[in-house]
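New to this. Explain the following:
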Amino acid sequence: MILRRTILAASTALAAATVMTTPAAARSRTGAPKRLEALHMAPAREQVAALRQGKISSRDLLEQYLQHIATGNPALNAVVTLDAAGARAAADKADRHLADTGKPTGPLHGLPMTVKDALETKGMRTTCGSPDLKDHVPAEDADAVALLRAAGAIIIGKTNVPTMCADLQTSNPLFGKTSNPYDSTKTAGGSSGGPAVSVATGFSPLEVGSDLAGSLRLPAAYCGVYALRTSRGTSPIVPTRGHIPRLPGWATSSDMLSLGPIARTADDLDLLLDVLAQPAPADRSGWKISLPAPTKKKIGQYRVGLWSDDAYCRVDADTRDLMGQVAAALRKAGASIDDASRPVDFKDSDLLFTRLMYATASATATEESFAADVEAANKIPAGDPAGLYLHSRTMRHHDWLVADEKRRQLAAAWASYFAEHDILITPATPTAAVPDQTSVPAPQREIRVDGQKRGYYEQTSWLNLTSPIGLPSLVVPAGQTEDGLPLSIQIVGPYLGDRTVIAAARQLAQLLPPVQTPARKR
């Protein structure tokens, strides 16, 4: 296993390795190797197709990724653990299998990938950015990682997260800060900041992010990539066992946590969704997940709800302009637009989510720390806003059941809305990527929206509209600010409408301004 501090050494070694092994299909008639075109920024589907067709070997593609990581990662710090030796062995095994059988091992056969450092990975250090887990090497894969391997993916290494995934930017005492690839003074977002940067810059073609409070979608919006928070009912459609911050060995995860794909195209989200949408292992003998096909074939056929702004969480001028472009493009395409109806009350929904989030986060507190929280909560009068965190974190089971009932009623309100609408489009965030505030104490952090001071956690308010009730929610990059920062929208669909929001994103992307990739910008 090679850690971040040894990546520079790996860079020197890789730079010296100017001649790589080349598959027979990529050799000239004289047997001399032909120059292989770099594929690391191509869509994942194209890479998988090239591997299957013998245009490139898994080992050669892996070497491209290792070279690219060695060159580009030191400035960004997205990849924090690298297992080059293990990845090479796995790639060689995949190449031998294809040569011997003529058949791929799965839909991701031979495709190199990085994995978020919150997902346990067998034999590879998994820390979730916590000094307490600095030496944690799991004996088994998280269920989602096991699905990647079963599909034929080659795991290269791990990508950075904030400590225990508990921040909206990505930094921790073990590995330091991950920078936004468009502007190093801006945050990459969190907690899936490392994964989003890895995909945006071509260190990995795909990633799996996790989302409780926007942790998947916020970094995607700030880094100009696509991300899907997958549907979650009583159980998630992507198994979550093995995700930290639930401690290593725990069989459960948060009741609002969803895992989902990160990619550079909507098509690639679909590719990874096919791999990840599986019941938990214990349920696979009797259950299967068959997500419905998209409800419409053309964007002009959609009944679209449009929620462009709200007094509860105002967006900035750039985002308002983007939402106006979205509305104009949809109307020109012939879509039916409803910009007046609202599925829920923004403020009430956000308060309910906040209470449930604080409650679920208490699961791994020690007995001593939880007892201290209970004692402190008892000293704050009920209904006092200053006690929201402690009262929510220590709520009695009766109170949680009442809150859960309100969540079910919220889900019913959304279901009624989607009886009349196919999708809802909202802003993803109030602004483009905000300044990194790693060095600022959390109580003093803030964001600015059109020059006005706003709360730090308002970055995820729009994303958290869907977090308590588990609706599929997809971030789509669309255009950039004058400073070159990506802008994004969010497409929300009905429960289990994951393929519908992907299809809508695929079609809508053709109508909206593209986002220049960081690689091309540089």
